[in-house]
Amino acid sequence: MLPERSGGYSLIELMIAIAILSIIAAIAVPSYRAMVYNAQIVSAMADIKQISNEITIFRMTNRRFPASLQEIGMDGKLDPWGRPYQYLLIAGAEGAKGHQRKDHNLVPLNSDYDLYSLGRDGESSPPLTAQQSHDDIVRANNGGFVGLATNY
After folding, report:
1. Which has the higher per-residue pLDDT, 99 or 121?
2. Total number of domains constituting the chain
3. For residue 91, is it within any domain?
4. d(C-alpha 110, C-alpha 113), whole Å
5. Is 147 in contact with 118 (CB distance < 8 Å)?
6. What is the C-alpha separation between 30 and 126, in angstroms, rounded?
7. Tens of pLDDT along 30-56?
8. What are phi and psi of 79, to 5 degrees?
9. Strands 137-140 and 86-89
10. Which three-class secondary structure state does DSSP give residue 65?
11. What is the rounded distance in angstroms from the CA atom of residue 132 to the CA atom of residue 135?
12. Average pLDDT rounded to a whole number, residues 112-116
């Protein structure tokens, strides 16, 4: 006959339960991080579209592009990673030509203005092919595309 159990769990049962929970956590945590990152990308895309709309309204009202995001009251708007959005006026600004964002063929993304987020790493470079630009959220084709730089 087996001895009577006292109602507690054995060491083996506890170890099995901990192992199962560890496996579930190992699967869930990366999925959760990927989901959060995708939500941050979507949020940055929505912000860029909103800022672009404000720039369009400013342009229709004033017949010129704003010199900075401050002119449209968006200079304090931060991306999902806590950094300000980057704005570069291209149309009519001769000094901006060398600093424009460029695609894989080194063709400028926009002819009016560049608007982008530095992404998760907080670093960027004018060509989208540069490693530090891969996670940037960019506006391209004069607003025809807004999304992750690697998707352009």
Report:
1. 121
2. 1
3. yes
4. 6
5. no
6. 30
7. 999 999 999 999 999 999 999 999 999
8. -75, 175
9. unpaired
10. coil
11. 7
12. 95
